[in-house]
Input
Amino acid sequence: MAARTNMSVEERMAIAIQMLDEGRQYGEATTLAAHYGISRQMTYYLADKAEAVLLKGLLPTNGAAALDGFIAVTSARLKRAVTLLDMLGVSERDTVLALEEMLDTRRSPAYVVQVRHEAEALAALRNAEMKLHLSGLLAADEIFLHEQPILGVVHPASLYLVSLNLSVQRDGVSWGCQFLEGDMAAGITSDAGSGLAAGAALAQVGCHAGDWFHPLLQAALAGAQYERQAYAALTEQYEREEKLRQTDTPKRWENHWRKYQKACAAADLAIQRYDQWHILRLELRAAAAQFDWVSGQVRTPVQVQSELSRLTTAFALWAKGTQAQNLVRLLSGQTQALTTILPFIQQALQPLQTAWGEQATRVVCRLWQALQEWAFPFWQPAQRQLLEQAITESLAWASEHLAQHLPTLQHLVAAILAQWPRTSSAIECLNSLLRPYLNARKHVSQGFLELFRFFHNTHRFVRGKRIGSTPLELAGGPQIADPLAFLGLGQKS
Output
């Protein structure tokens, strides 16, 4: 008798459980077969199937587990292993040792070098083939290996690495050639590097936006330094005051009194410097906003440049030390670059204004800006009140006029702003990913950089908001199931 095709899972489980019972009576298989209308062979088959599933499912997951089957050491698997070890910074001779230990295969250092050169050439070819249409700004910066610059450009929205080139210099000509060779989309954003600025000018990049991260960081670092100095000055004042109390001779008291007065003056100056710097720092952060807190309109470059000019003069009055002086120099040289992006944001929002209305777009932009700034914990009470008012009024208007369409318009505004970032943090992120690989090497070649770029663009994010996707996919490219096979090294097995 064959197995019934309409047998439920519960019936199969009941048969398997009774057959796996070591205390089952003789003839149990015949009884079960007659009861369920199946053959005796089917009862044994179900028992064996259930036992296999249980053994596999109950294997320990927190320790070493034996693998099923054998690994076939093919030419493709060897090439894939050598390429991956090259990415990890393993030397040629150490790669030979790893292959012998892990795959029981002996290869010469010359073989390793040959496979590496082949993989790096294939990576350069694949990178050249992947021509994508990237929207918005790209972020550019350089990283160094033993004083040799490596010029990188990345698409912030997807973290797609557009180019990564080993260079002799980081001057305007080097950057200009890099910008001309690649598709710079709408423009670039970068820090205050003079070579980057000169290269953007030579390549006639449409928009070269300044980086707000560095001036805000410099202001915060200087503020933290001034706070430490103020506490140190107060400590000195209290110590002088205690010595005055303990002095019992007129001459010593007079000496300590002079030092106490000097400590009081130093403490007052240090506290005043910190207080003024803290206020200016908050005004600088408010000036970095794309949208006006009250109206929701895109701020005009003239308005922001006027504020930055005033703040630069005010910072200069209280600047003391390297961090503060760096901020003053940065603001003096980057005032125009920090506002370059504003007209482009206004232009990018025009389709939304046409489709949804100007007022609706301004309300959502105001709400977006207020929610972004709300997370910053150091605002003054008056500034915090303005943010609360912006959030309350925007939500009230949106609930009346947009209702369930508010999330849609919020998503569209956020998508546009993601294409026009205020900072070059994306390329700094890529530099932090590349640095560990560079530290493991005494020297680096353009071939390795091409290989790193290929691996980064085709491997999936394992955490964060981009989890499960690759930079290539997010930038509009194809899905790559097996990057090493796509590279041209063959399937693993």
Notes: The chain has 20 helices and five strands. The mean pLDDT is 87.
